[in-house]
């Protein structure tokens, strides 16, 4: 049995966030450069999320790689910032924890390559409830796309790191 692409089943981190009062959403001001000290830390403190929303890698595991994993962390806008700006959505909605997940750099990179194809629903503008539905659909869409790209790269990875041959004996 080869390595699994991920044992991380589709689980939207938002389902584990504290119950959000949609009338009090606030922008975390993600234009700041120091996300680990500012909005990334704020996101972690408010939600307890400690792993990549897409592949499940932990950023804080207590093993020798933990600092390297932590450095691979980024913050992802599920509904992309550009799309939200294009639709004139209130920044207190699209830049709130509702629309933010922790994400590793490689998954973020996979997702960015697919940004143009995010399902487009202009009727959601400035209704937090409608935005929430849109954001959930977009997360599922991106989760699927990112999983497909990881699976493709896993095929290439096996040229670099061949699977152990279980028929070998010594
Ligand atoms: Zn990831």
Automatic annotation (TrEMBL):
MF-aspect GO terms: endonuclease activity; nucleic acid binding; zinc ion binding
Pfam families registered for this protein in UniProt: HNH
Domain HNH: 52-109
Signal peptide: none
Source superkingdom: Bacteria
InterPro entries, per database record: HNH (IPR002711), HNH_nuc (IPR003615)
Protein's name in the database: HNH domain-containing protein
């Amino acid at each position: 049995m080869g390595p699994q692409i991920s044992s991380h089943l589709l689980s939207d981190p938002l389902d584990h966030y504290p119950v959000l009062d949609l009338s009090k959403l606030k922008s975390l001001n993600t234009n700041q450069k120091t996300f680990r000290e500012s909005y990334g830390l704020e996101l972690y403190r408010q939600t307890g999320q400690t792993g990549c929303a897409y592949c499940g890698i932990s950023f804080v595991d207590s093993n020798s790689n933990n600092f390297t994993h932590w450095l691979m962390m980024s913050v992802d806008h599920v509904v992309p910032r550009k799309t939200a700006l294009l639709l004139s959505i209130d920044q207190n909605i699209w830049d709130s924890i509702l629309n933010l997940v922790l994400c590793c750099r490689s998954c973020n990179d996979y997702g960015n390559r697919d940004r143009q194809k995010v399902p487009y629903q202009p009727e959601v503008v400035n209704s937090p409830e409608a935005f929430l539905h849109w954001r959930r659909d977009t997360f599922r869409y991106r989760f699927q796309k990112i999983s497909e790209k990881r699976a493709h790269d896993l095929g290439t990875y096996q040229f670099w790191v061949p699977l152990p041959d279980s028929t070998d004996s010594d």
